[in-house]
Specification:
By secondary structure, the protein is of the alpha/beta class. The chain contains 22 helices and 10 strands. Helix content is 57%, strand content 11%. A 5-stranded parallel sheet has the order 5-6-7-4-8, with helices on both faces. A 3-stranded mixed sheet has the order 1-2-3. A two-stranded antiparallel sheet has the order 9-10.
């Protein structure tokens, strides 16, 4: 057995020990179940006297806990001689890793007939991004954003810039990549057209690299001469003053030349914490449009197309059931299909409504509300200029601690999740979640201010005001 990805990432200090543990788990539950639930789905590690299992979402975490927790403990005992407790948490980074692996596998077998997802740029010299506008499923929740994207791509937009915002997994990246692909194709017969799609993180890294290597002018020529710049996850620029200043000048250069800037963010421009006021005013001067979570008709069509791409025989009653109960994002819809395909493979390939109901029971119990913890984390992270991964990390800086406390309070207020469920989702224990909620309640009742750090220094705001702003955003 070759050493799997999760082994290397989770426990680099002693990979041989983890390899033996994983081999023992595979021998205990069988290779088929191991491949479905362990090889690429979770990360295992030995930390501080316990076995940590990081799952990509609550569904997988609950399944591992219900079906394989004792097998994990027995395997660790057999290989280490220690009877260690097994702690199962939810880590979004695992979901991102799993999605990349799925994209690579789908590309290799041509399931969707699409190229592998790569973080690369589109330029006049070649390269095509993964998503196109013709593949975008249009519904009531996103038709305005789609129309605006078509206008920019065709060169007929009367507005500049275009700023698209909305929760994670609703199609913002799809639209930005689609704009670049269509704009370049439409102008290919004419003069050279320079179009570039990057994430704000990539823009930041390139800028800092240019500063270190003293190649800032090369960086500026590369960006300021673009005909179209599409920058994703623009909330990543929050609190990064030097990068914001550079982006402001880049924005001005592109716009003054009559060219377009398109952006996407998890939050409205005015809800992105520590953003330069001049940038916010420029964002607001164009078209700001929100993408909502897909409605039932849109979700049904997305499922139908994705199932066809996966060559999955999805009965009408199963399709209707999934579309009705998985409501938050396109990524969750696709993830649900993958889970159902895996379960069907274990049960002889036949997918039934009963199977779908059993598979989604835990998911429905956790997400049967208008707001999910993912929505809350995205809004809070954008407000404080951090990432959802920071909230899940072990970091204890003032900013991250305040953000984590607010997430716990909002989760109790806006979702039906219990303290143990919230703690597990955020990589913490039950008592930590209870304490965070109690501290937040005390601050509200005492009309106290929240204080956190930014690159420009300390910032304070009444706790009730912060919660009011964030509640408006997530709802």
């Amino acid at each position: 057995m070759t050493q799997s990805t999760e082994t290397v990432r989770a426990h680099r200090a002693d990979p041989e020990k983890m390899k033996r543990i994983l081999t023992a788990i595979q021998d205990k539950i069988g290779p088929q179940k191991y491949n479905v639930w362990f090889r690429h789905c979770v990360q295992l590690g030995l930390e501080d006297g316990h076995v940590k299992v990081a799952a990509p979402n609550p569904f997988v975490a609950n399944w591992i806990e219900t079906h394989y927790q004792s097998d994990i403990a027995d395997s660790v005992l057999a290989e280490t001689g220690q009877n260690l407790p097994v702690v199962i948490t939810v880590d979004p980074a695992v979901a991102q890793m799993r999605q990349r692996q799925f994209d690579e596998q789908a590309s290799q077998v041509h399931l969707a007939g699409e190229g592998r997802l790569r973080e690369r740029s589109v330029s006049s010299q070649g390269g095509t991004l993964r998503h196109s506008l013709k593949d975008f499923v249009v519904g009531e929740s996103n038709k305005l954003a789609h129309s605006a994207a078509l206008a920019v791509a065709s060169g007929d937009a009367p507005f500049n810039p275009l700023f698209i915002h909305g929760p994670c997994g609703v199609g913002k990246t799809h639209l930005l990549m689609g704009i670049c692909n269509l704009a370049q194709a439409a102008r290919r017969a004419g003069k050279p057209f320079n179009c570039r799609w990057v994430t704000a993180e990539q823009f930041t890294n390139e800028f800092l690299g240019a500063l270190r290597s003293k190649r800032v002018e090369e960086f500026r020529v590369r960006y300021r001469k673009l005909d179209l710049l599409a920058i994703d996850d623009v909330h990543f620029l929050a609190s990064k003053r030097a990068t914001q200043d550079e982006f402001l000048h880049t924005f001005n250069s592109i716009q003054s030349a009559g060219n377009h800037v398109v952006m996407a963010s998890d939050a409205h421009p005015r809800m992105v914490g520590e953003m330069h006021e001049q940038l916010i005013s420029r964002f607001m001067a164009g078209m700001v449009v929100k993408i909502e979570a897909p409605d039932l008709a849109t979700r049904t069509e997305i499922l139908r197309r994705r199932a066809a791409a996966l060559r999955l025989d999805l009965p009408a009653d199963v399709l209707e059931y999934v579309a009705k109960h998985v409501r938050v994002s396109v990524r969750e819809l696709e993830g649900t299909l993958i889970k159902l395909a895996a379960l069907a493979a274990l049960d002889g390939g036949k997918l039934t409504l009963q199977m779908a109901g059993d598979a989604l029971a835990d998911h429905i119990a956790r997400t049967d509300s208008a707001v999910t913890l993912g929505d809350i984390e995205a809004s809070v992270a954008a407000f404080f200029g951090i990432t959802p991964a920071d909230i899940h990390s072990s970091r204890r800086t003032r900013t991250v601690s305040v953000a984590r406390m607010i997430c716990t309070h909002l989760a109790r207020r806006h979702t039906r999740m219990s303290f143990p469920e919230i703690g597990r989702y955020m990589g913490k224990n039950h008592s930590s979640a209870v304490l965070a909620a109690q501290r937040m309640e005390a601050m509200i009742n005492g009309e106290k201010d929240l204080a956190w750090m930014t690159p420009m220094g300390a910032k304070t705001m009444p706790a009730s005001k912060v919660l009011e702003l964030l509640s408006q955003q997530i709802q």
